[in-house]
Backbone:
C-alpha cells in the first residue's frame, strides 16, 4: 500500500510538470467532465497520502505482537518529529542510536545470542544481562553519566520514550557504546 500512495503522488507531480500552465500558475486547459468541478490542491493530496502512510505505519507497529521486544520497550511508535531529528544524524550517530533503541548492537546480550560471547552479563557491573534497557536505565556504573546526559540517575524504559534522540546519542558517545 505504501508504494501505491507514494506512486500516486509521484505520478501526480510528473503530470503537473509536463502539463502547460497559465500565467497564474493553474492549468491552462479547461476542465472536462460533470459540473460542478471541485479542485483538489496538491498540498491536500500530499497531506492525505502522508496521513495514509502514518496510519499504515501505526497499524504495522501495533500488529507486531510479542516480536521486537526491546524496540517496543524503548520506542513509543512512529513519530514524525523523531523521524526529522533522526534524518539529521550522520551514519555513526544513527547507527549508535538505532542499535541502542532496538537492541541490535554490540552489547553482551546480543553478542551472546549470536554465539560470540559465553556470558550475557553486563561487562560494567556484572549484575544483570547487558541489554539496551539495562544500559539506558539501570546499570549502576553508568548512573552518573545517565544523570548528566539523560537527566536522572535511574530511569524506567517508559522514560526513554520521551527522551530526545540527541540526548541518547550524547549518552552513547560518553559511554563509548558504538
Residues:
Amino acid at each position: 500500500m505504501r508504494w501505491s500512495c507514494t506512486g500516486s503522488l509521484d505520478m501526480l507531480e510528473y503530470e503537473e510538470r509536463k502539463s502547460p500552465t497559465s500565467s497564474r500558475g493553474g492549468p491552462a486547459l479547461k476542465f472536462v467532465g460533470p459540473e460542478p468541478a471541485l479542485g483538489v490542491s496538491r498540498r491536500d493530496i500530499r497531506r492525505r497520502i502522508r496521513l495514509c502512510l502514518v496510519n499504515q505505519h501505526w497499524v504495522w507497529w501495533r500488529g507486531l505482537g510479542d516480536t521486537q521486544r526491546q524496540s517496543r520497550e524503548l520506542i513509543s511508535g512512529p513519530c514524525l518529529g523523531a523521524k526529522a531529528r533522526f534524518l539529521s544524524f550522520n551514519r555513526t550517530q544513527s547507527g549508535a542510536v538505532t542499535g541502542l533503541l532496538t537492541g541490535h548492537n554490540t552489547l553482551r546480550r546480543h553478542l551472546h545470542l549470536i554465539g560470540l560471547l559465553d556470558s550475557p552479563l553486563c561487562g560494567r557491573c556484572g549484575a544483570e544481562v547487558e541489554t539496551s534497557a539495562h544500559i539506558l536505565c539501570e546499570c549502576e556504573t553508568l548512573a552518573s553519566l545517565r544523570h548528566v546526559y539523560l537527566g536522572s540517575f535511574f530511569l524506567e524504559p517508559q522514560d526513554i520514550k520521551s527522551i530526545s534522540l540527541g540526548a541518547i546519542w550524547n549518552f552513547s558517545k560518553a559511554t563509548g557504546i558504538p
